[in-house]
Automatic annotation (TrEMBL):
Pfam families: Alpha-amylase, DUF3459. GO terms for cellular component: cytoplasm. Residues 93-441 form the Glycosyl hydrolase family 13 catalytic domain. This is Malto-oligosyltrehalose trehalohydrolase. The keyword Hydrolase applies. It catalyses: hydrolysis of (1->4)-alpha-D-glucosidic linkage in 4-alpha-D-[(1->4)-alpha-D-glucanosyl]n trehalose to yield trehalose and (1->4)-alpha-D-glucan. The record marks 368 as: Transition state stabilizer. InterPro entries: DUF3459, GH, GH13_cat_dom, Ig-like_fold, Ig_E-set, Trehalose_TreZ, Trehalose_TreZ_E-set_sf. Keywords: Carbohydrate metabolism, Cytoplasm, Glycosidase, Hydrolase. It comes from the Bacteria. The keyword Zinc-finger does not apply. Its EC number is 3.2.1.141. One of its GO terms (biological process) is trehalose biosynthetic process.
């Protein structure tokens, strides 16, 4: 077996396999190679044994030797899987460690039938790359190609993907290329992987000397998830932190290579960005001069919905007071407009005639917007179920790709809090202290902020699977199922043409025009009378009894109704 590693910085690299050292031959391009046989291996860099930067398996943690892994030995059963396009889909975001009490891939696979019954099409899995410790969100990964062993390692992840495909569910994987975690990050010992800094630490060297191999490292990792693990798409974390001044940005290079792989595999592969730029060129086709990614998260839609449902106006929320209708029409609220949170103008308008709505993910909640609150409280902790249903109706009847965060569909009572489990006591204390100081600046007492290192924080954040059948929770779940079923059975509700999407404000209500259907959402505390643009027809779904006659409709407080325009008034 040939072992190789790119290490242009060290003076000497040797290979250690099963405790035996072997000399490696270096070449001018910075690659070192040696032939040996065995199972566990490490590269000895200037006297220090380090795991393989391209490792697929770290059975003993991120500081220890890598283990040889043969992808061909896994017995896949998804040969008939043709994939799913994102357009028309519904995404469900989950965290393997807290989705079930088991906190494993196999535990999550046992709950997939719930997602099928719910009606989602894509399962977005938060990062599963290897990180230090047992529990964590996954964004502090340090070996991007190795699957976190406590979840079940590489075979466990493949079993999960295989089980999803058997049920018709596509799998999207969250990957982090903008930084590495603070423990077990050894890339700088091998070569010039880093240049500059971002909010989370050293940023990747994407355009300086030696950057060709750094870019290759990223692209090869992405391709490996899609090819070797049969993943259907990637969610790219915080791409605005990828500093690349080259003529061809890393994201465009990635889009080109993933398109080629998709063609070769004969199934759709999806790239979804998280971006703070409010620039639709990311999701504009390369033929149209864009980067060519397939979709991006839209935090502006979240912020406008959050303010409308909760009334919160702290932090970055003040600009979004009364902004829901405009944001629904235009995707970005900050579209070359003043952002008080940033103290500058931000973003650019989306050309809604050219860019379809399915390229933007809309959501009431996600891991960041819950977990980065001081106590990790969900909307259901403060927003009544009736109003939650109104928010869900707006998301699930919009021209955007809906995304649901695990447990949202039954108004889970469990919070989702920030947690980590760094074994190093000094690092653990630094994370604990930093978290408390951060929220103290916003008026929270230290006792109010959960200890991120306490295993109890993980337990509190784990979903309770007895809740979906309990009173109240079951009603919310039923409404989510019915809304999703309605979206899938009436194509006009998923129509992505934003330029044909009209949103009218009538008092505290929004009226969404969806072809021949009207979705009336009352966000207020009192009933509202709405005059439609045509006679009320069949009520397809409502969260509370409504009265209608002719063109008039009275919608109760904190409720919604989906009605067709027709000739016969009805009482629903």
């Amino acid at each position: 077996m040939i072992f190789s590693v790119w290490a242009p910085t060290p003076a000497l690299v040797s290979l250690r396999v099963d405790g035996v050292d072997h000399p490696m031959s270096g070449s001018p391009d910075g690659w070192w190679r040696a032939e040996a046989s065995g199972t566990d291996y490490a590269f000895v860099v200037d006297g220090t044994a380090l795991p393989d930067p391209r490792s697929s398996w770290q059975p003993n943690g991120v500081h220890e030797a890598s283990r040889v892994y043969d992808h061909s030995e896994f017995a896949w059963t998804d040969s008939g899987w043709a994939g799913r396009q994102l357009a028309g889909g519904i995404v469900y975001e989950l965290h393997i460690g807290t989705f079930t009490p088991e906190g494993t891939f196999d535990g999550a696979a046992a709950r997939l039938d719930h997602l099928v019954d719910l009606g989602v099409t894509h399962v977005e899995v938060m990062p599963v790359n290897a990180f230090d410790g047992v529990a964590g969100w996954g964004y502090d990964g340090v070996l991007w190609g190795a699957v976190h062993e406590p979840y079940g390692g590489p075979d466990g992840f493949k079993r999960f993907v295989d089980a999803c495909h058997a049920r018709g569910l596509a799998v999207l994987l969250d990957v982090v290329y903008n930084h590495l975690g603070p423990s077990g990050a050894y890339l700088d010992r091998f070569g010039p992987y880093f240049a500059g800094r971002n909010d989370w630490g050293p940023g990747l060297n994407l355009d300086g000397p030696g950057s060709d191999e750094v870019r290759r490292y990223v692209v090869d990792n992405a391709v490996a998830w899609l090819r070797d693990f049969h993943v259907d798409g990637l969610r790219l974390d915080a791409v605005h932190a990828l500093v690349d001044r080259g003529a061809v940005h890393l994201l465009e290079q990635l889009a080109v290579e993933v398109e080629a792989l998709s063609t070769g595999l004969g199934r759709p592969l999806t790239l979804i960005a998280e971006s703070d730029l409010n620039d639709a060129s990311l999701v504009t086709a390369r033929e149209g001069g864009g980067t060519g990614l397939h979709a991006q998260w839209s935090d502006d839609l979240h912020h406008a919905l959050h303010v409308a449902l909760t009334g919160e106006t702290a932090g970055y929320y003040p600009d979004f007071v009364g902004a829901l209708a405009a944001t629904l029409r235009g995707v970005f609220f900050h579209a070359g407009t003043w952002s008080s949170f940033r103290s500058r103008h931000h973003g650019r308008p989306v050309d809604t005639r050219r860019v379809p709505g399915h390229r933007f993910l809309a959501y009431l909640q996600n891991h960041d917007q819950i977990g980065n609150r001081a106590t990790g409280d969900r909307l259901s902790a403060t927003v009544p179920h009736g109003l939650l249903a109104v928010g869900a109706a707006i998301v699930l009847t919009s021209p955007y790709t809906p995304m649901i965060f695990m447990g949202e569909e039954w108004a889970a009572s469990t919070p989702w809090q920030f947690f980590a489990s760094f074994p190093d006591p000094g690092l653990a204390e630094a994370v604990r202290t930093g978290r408390r100081r951060e929220f103290a600046r916003h008026g929270w007492g230290e006792a109010d902020v959960p200890d991120p290192i306490d295993p109890e924080t993980v337990r509190r954040s784990t979903l309770r699977w007895d809740e979906p059948v309990e009173p109240g929770h079951a009603d919310v779940l039923r409404m989510y199922r019915e809304l999703i079923a309605l979206r899938r059975s009436h194509p006009e509700l998923a129509d992505p043409r934003v330029d044909r999407f009209e949103v009218r404000e009538v008092g505290t209500a929004l009226v969404l025009h969806r072809g021949g259907l009207r979705v009336v959402c009352n966000l207020g505390a009192e009933p509202v009378d709405v005059e439609l643009d045509g006679p009320c027809g069949e009520v397809l779904l409502s969260s509370a009894p409504v009265e209608s006659g002719g063109r008039a409709m009275r919608v109760p407080a904190a409720s919604f109704v989906v009605v067709g325009l027709g000739s016969q008034p009805v009482v629903g």
